[in-house]
Design brief:
Rossmann fold; alpha/beta; 5 strands; 2 domains; 7 helices
């Protein structure tokens, strides 16, 4: 089981061919993905931007968003917001990014991400995509 952030879901649902291939390799390597509810708002924003800038049409964006939940086996809802804030303040990460790091650390899991800052600042849990 691994924690995934919006970069991984975005690659899987909206990425170019190389990004989709990488995320599919991750599905085969580690098929049990978890995240928290915030990821749906972030991935919704990715869909909106892709549609707004003409990368995909609206129907494809809606279809992809319908698939997003099926990629996750679990959605963590019990988040320690003060703890996430402390982590963000200590590391300089955004609250969004710190929330994924916090989830991975709290569950003793790895966080798969494409976010360069998270990979640099949190090598104890952050791992690149295959």
């Amino acid at each position: 089981m691994i924690v995934v952030d919006c970069t991984v879901l975005g690659d899987h649902l909206f990425g170019d061919a190389a990004a989709r291939e990488s995320s599919q390799a991750l599905v085969e390597l580690e098929p049990e993905w978890i995240s928290h509810g915030l990821v749906f708002y972030e991935i919704g924003n990715v869909a909106w931007k892709c549609s707004k800038f003409g990368q995909i049409d609206r129907e494809d964006a809606e279809t992809a968003l319908g698939k997003a939940g099926g990629l996750l086996m679990e959605i963590e809802r019990d988040l320690d917001f003060p703890g996430i804030y402390r982590l963000a303040a200590e590391t300089g990460l955004t609250f969004y990014d710190a929330s994924y790091v916090w989830l991975a650390r709290s569950r003793g899991l790895k966080l798969r991400t494409r976010d360069k800052e998270v990979l640099r600042i949190c090598p104890d849990v952050a791992v690149r995509l295959p």
